[in-house]
Structures are given as structure tokens and as C-alpha cells.
Design goal:
The chain has one helix and 25 strands. It is mainly beta.
Length: 326
Amino acid sequence: MSECILLKSGGTDLDFITATAADVVAPKVIINKDGEPVTGTMPNNGAIRATLNCGQSKAIPVGYTTGGTVTVNSLASQTSGTAAANNILSGKTAWVNGSKISGTIPSQGATTITPGTSNQTAISAGTYASGAITVAGNSNLVAGNIRKGVTIFGVTGTFSGIATSPYVFLKYGNSINNPPVDATGGATAIKKFLSWNTSGGKASGSYINAYYIGVSNNVYGDTGTASIRFNNAVDLSSYRYLKCNVLKSGLSTGTVSYILGISTSTSATSYSRHTSISVDDGTLVLDVTNLSGPYFVYVEATGTLSRIESGGTKIIYITNITLSDV
């Protein structure tokens, strides 16, 4: 039996159909070229939306989409920070809160600092050390190379130099076994006893190489101060102590005081350093540690005149002056 196909007017050749199930959004149905219904298999993904930061991506799945929006966050929101130009090295840049910033911190290369007598800045505030900052050392910075009592960079010296042997500036002596020493160059009166003439002279008689402070005749019982300066300056560089022996002569008991002082001045009435005692006779010890160079030695006496002698009164005697380390 033969088949009969009836074609309606305006019919379409189904051979023109090229869509397949994969090309049709599920669950839509189409007719294939064979005239058979086909249900679509293309996924319906609906609207696609995403918010991205710098460097991120959004995968778009295979299938149909109704649209959507991909949003990129602002640069400011992605570069939040607190750095300023002075927190960033010069020549470097950075993004901070959406703005590009060029650094201003200066750099300092490697350097070596040699210690001196004044402070030195290793690196200024706000500067970046791009190399090593070195403080030079010296193998000679040891206690034995530094004068005793002096501290340099935390090292306290122990060197005594020639001061291990005392230097005798003035020595009382009266025999060949106890020879006198006189390196004073004489003595000059500085302070005057009650404005009267005061003298400094070399003693004679029982005192050999002793010096005295003398005053002209005064009324018995007058009180005053007199001083002399020894004329030769003494270099104190290698010594710690200056010692002087004094002996009351024409000053009354109970009111006698002595001062041993030093000064670079030839007419000092006050002293760079001094020490004092109040006894009839004794030894004055003055600490001259850390002093260097030549100084003049002064001896001063204050008291009440106890007697009057013809031509003047010797109020005190000075019998020994030495420099030592102990």
C-alpha cells in the first residue's frame, strides 16, 4: 500500500533546522529537521552578578544568562593604609587610599664614625640607613694608656706615668743626707695682711729651704689674711695630689687657717682648686686629678697676730711642697 503525504500551502523545508537540544534553553521544546519534538538542554543560568577586587576574576558558566552586572571595587577601598610620604623611601612609590604617593625618606650610605671630643650624630632622625653605620674602635683604648682617674668612653685609666716617683717642688733639708730642693723661683706676696705690706721670703737659720709669709709690724691682736705665690709654675699633668707642709709662727693659737690653692693666673685671689685646714701645723693635700699644664702654687694664711718683731713678723713657714700619685 503506498503512502500519501499532504503538504499544506506555505510549508517549510525542515532541512533548514540546525538547532539541537544543546542550543535550546531547557525546558523549551523545538522540532528537529525530522519533525520530531526536541527538549532543550542548554542550562538557564539566570542573571549573573559579581563584585571583584583588583586581580580577581569571575567564571561565566556555559549556558544561557538573562544578563547581570560585574562590579569592580574602588581603588581606594582596596588600598587602605596609613602611610604618608615621609614613611616611604625616596625614589619608591605606593598606593594609599587610592592615591599614588612618592616617598621622601632620605637614605644614608655606609659610614664610619671616629670618636672625638664632641658628640657626633650617627644617622639623622627620619633617615634610612642603607649601609652599615660603624663606630671605629682603637686597640689603644685600654686602661693602661689612660691617665689614672680619667675615664674615656667608659674606660677608666690606670696609667700613672712618671708620677710613680714624687716630684719635689720644695724640700726642707739640713744635711748632705737630706739635701734641700728649691724649684720655686722665689715667692711673691699677693694678699696683704690688713692692707699692710706682706712678703714672701726664704727662711734662714734653722730652716733650710723653708719659705715664710711675713708681714710688717702691726698692732698686737690684729686679724687678717696674707698669701704668697711661688714664682715657678708646675706642670700637673701626671699627678693626682699636691701636698704642702705649713707651720704656724707669728699667728696665735686657735684662729689659724691655711689654704693651698692653684691657678694659671699670676695674681690670683681665688683659685682653680684649693683645700684648707685649721691647725697650728700640718699637711695640706690638694687633689689635682685631671688637671694638665702649668699652674702656680699659692699658700694663704688667716689668723690673729700674736706678737710683733722688729722689722716684721713671720706668720707661717712652708717647709715642703711635693707632687705625687698617692
